[in-house]
Design goal:
Blueprint (H helix, E strand, L loop, with lengths): L12 H9 L10 H14 L12 H10 L11 H9 L20 E4 L21 H11 L4 H9 L16 H5 L14 E4 L4 H4 L19 H9 L5 H15 L1 H5 L4
Parallel strand pairs: 1-2
Helix pairs in contact: 3-4
């Protein structure tokens, strides 16, 4: 949902965050997420996406298909690089940026989360009273500390958000296959701008009301039905965005009560 819009001026991270913060409606005419749905409809109609792909499971279907060379290309995080090599150590893999700049988008912007305080991980207020508090606090500090971050850099093939001392250049198949080539003067893609701000959903997760569907119906488990209805023409892009807007209002009532649009 967040990656495809970044090819367009109206889909940049700042506008995505506005939706999550209640400064722009998810179903607005210039909603950044309209771009994702419109692209998906076109891609499905033209056969760029597998039929009934919403029924496929991530690991047993998507990753396994790629690792066994039944799929030519996939959009993913770092883990399939290593899983593929685990099946076939001689496999050759290479990567390329997820989305090119569309018409009207001057910069080739790519989202990348650096290893560090990523994913919006927090320890919620009130956990200090739990019996496991000391262990949880110590683990949290270790996970974002100088011992764990270099290990995560290697495991995920991503750069660190911190200046490490001693320096720890990344390793791993994803780093070698693509990351080291991005935004480097002598790399394959020197003109790319890396965007590392937190996605909107991570920025506002502290406001999420437990038990609600979540904007994309991910938390409710109904996300597959949303996509099935859209791509089989049971619902339109506008109707799908209306569902997302309603979900946001239910899932983030504190923000919805103070929305500014």
């Amino acid at each position: 949902m967040d990656i495809i819009p970044m090819a367009y001026p109206e889909g940049q991270r700042e506008f995505q965050r506005m939706c999550w913060m209640g400064e722009k409606a998810f179903n607005a005419e210039d909603s950044p997420y309209r771009i994702t749905y419109e692209f998906a409809v076109e891609a499905y109609d033209k056969g760029w996406l597998p039929k009934n792909f919403w029924t496929r499971q991530w690991e047993p279907d998507m990753e396994t298909s790629f690792a066994n060379k039944a799929s030519a290309v996939m959009l993913h995080g770092p883990w399939p690089w290593d899983k593929t090599l685990g099946i076939d150590p001689t496999a050759k893999q290479s990567g390329f940026p997820a989305n090119p700049p569309a018409e009207g988008q001057a910069e080739w912007v790519q989202f990348v989360t650096a290893v560090g305080f990523d994913q919006g991980w927090v320890i919620r207020e009130g956990n200090q009273d739990l019996p496991i508090w000391d262990v949880a606090r110590d683990f949290y500090i270790w996970w974002f500390g100088p011992e764990a971050v270099p290990m995560r850099v290697d495991a995920e093939g991503r750069v660190a958000a911190y200046k490490l001392d001693p320096p720890h250049p990344p390793t791993g198949p994803q780093y070698e296959g693509i990351v080291k080539e991005i935004a480097q003067p002598d790399g394959l893609w020197p003109d790319i701008k890396l965007e590392g701000l937190l996605p909107g959903n991570r920025q506002v997760y502290r406001y999420y009301k437990a038990g609600t569907p979540g904007v994309w119906d991910w938390e409710s488990g109904n996300i597959g039905k949303i996509w099935e209805d859209l791509l089989t023409k049971k619902t339109t892009v506008d109707e799908t965005l209306d569902i997302n807007q309603k979900n946001w209002e239910q899932s983030y009532p504190e923000l919805a009560a103070n929305k500014t649009y």
